[in-house]
Fold this protein.
Amino acid sequence: MAVTIKSYDAKIDSKKRITLRNALFEYFHVQEYDDGRIVLEPRELTVPFSVSSNTLNMMDQSIANMKAGKVSTAIDLSEFEEA
């Protein structure tokens, strides 16, 4: 069971914001309920999607193949051009 470490009243400002005093986290997940309750759950944001090392290696190999002339014949995309 969670233990209360702070308890205080807050007022919504003119832009509908409240200030959390000495918050331990920078980001929160917010849930608003029809009875007026607002629940904030702390969130730790993760690093956004990144390209895996395997994919980077495959890309490097593809460029090396292209520079070495190991490429397929060109694909005709002219049918997709607008008139």
Q: What stands out?
A: The helical segments are 53-67. The two ends are 68 Å apart (CA to CA).
